From TrEMBL:
GO biological process: cobalt ion transport
Gene for this chain: cbiQ
Provenance organism: Haloferax mediterranei (strain ATCC 33500 / DSM 1411 / JCM 8866 / NBRC 14739 / NCIMB 2177 / R-4) (Halobacterium mediterranei)
Database matches in Pfam families: CbiQ
InterPro entries: ABC/ECF_trnsptr_transmembrane, Cobalt_transport_CbiQ, ECF_CbiQ
Intracellular or extracellular location(s): Cell membrane
Membrane-protein topology: Multi-pass membrane protein
Protein name: CbiQ protein ( ABC-type cobalt transport system permease protein 1)
NCBIfam families (UniProt xref): ECF_T_CbiQ (TIGR02454)
GO cellular component: ATP-binding cassette (ABC) transporter complex
Main localisation: membrane
Keyword vocabulary terms for this entry: Cell membrane, Membrane, Plasmid, Transmembrane, Transmembrane helix
Domain of life from the UniProt record: Archaea
Coiled-coil regions listed in the entry: none
């Protein structure tokens, strides 16, 4: 990805934003992950793909392709090892039954649907926004403190690692396998020591400012309630009410 995740989040223009976005995503994920209907998965994929593409453009496809590549081998394995009475494909020791193919398809659609829902949250919501919404739901202050400190610590760690890597590369630290191993060892040691120093400096600065264990969290305005309610209504309908007859004939499971 040419842009960092933080940059994508900052440039995103979601139709649903603010704390209501977090609640919307959590409810949608619950409806999708607990459903046994193919139509629920398809509806979630379509709805959240459209919302995410509108918000971040092609970054959604780039973000989603990596977990899908990891998912595909597992789906193939599910199709091969699931026993069944009706054979769909057979070659030498490979045997795919109709039951295995159906289970792999169902698992794949459910996984992609859940990834689509979470991708909308990940690509359009910064950690402070997420923490603000969760605090409204009653997230304890120690967890808020931990989330924000880890978020800040990761950013500092990434910046420091890039600085050390660039300095080592300019000095010819990766010209051979032996040099790469030696340089990586020194960079890792420097990174560990600098991380410990940064943590101590942060603790000292917070104590000197009379930090009492409660992080200030900004409040965000919500918008897009109509889109959120419309999408939730669609997901509830396909989850509990019914689906078009053209889908109802697929495997008899809708």
């Amino acid at each position: 990805m040419h842009r960092t995740l933080e940059r994508i989040q900052a440039d995103a223009t979601p139709l649903v934003d603010g704390p209501v976005k977090v609640y919307f995503v959590l409810l949608s994920l619950l409806l999708t992950a607990t459903s046994a209907r193919f139509s629920s998965y398809v509806a979630a994929i379509v709805v959240f793909s459209l919302l995410t593409v509108h918000a971040v453009g092609r970054a959604y496809v780039t973000f989603l392709q990596y977990p899908i590549w990891f998912l595909l081998p597992s789906l193939v394995l599910i199709a091969l090892v699931t026993p069944g009475t009706t054979t769909v494909f057979e070659y030498w020791i490979l045997h795919i039954s109709e039951e295995g193919l159906l289970l792999a398809t169902k698992t794949g659609l459910r996984s992609i649907a859940s990834l689509s829902v979470l991708s909308f949250l990940a690509l359009t919501t910064t950690v402070p926004q997420l923490v603000s919404a969760l605090r409204t739901l009653g997230l304890p202050d120690p967890l808020v403190e931990m989330l924000l400190l880890v978020y800040r610590g990761i950013q500092v760690l990434v910046d420091e690692s890039i600085r050390l890597y660039t300095a080592a590369k300019l000095r010819g630290g990766f010209t051979s396998k032996r040099a790469t191993f030696r340089t990586t060892k020194h960079v890792a040691t420097s990174l560990l020591l600098s991380s410990l120093d940064s943590a101590e400096q942060l603790d000292l600065s917070m104590r000197s400012r009379c930090y009492d264990g409660v992080f200030p969290v900004r409040d965000y305005d919500s918008r897009g309630h109509t889109y959120a309610l419309g999408a939730l209504a669609l997901l509830v309908f396909v989850r509990f009410v019914g689906t078009p007859s053209v889908f109802a004939q697929f495997g008899g499971i809708l």
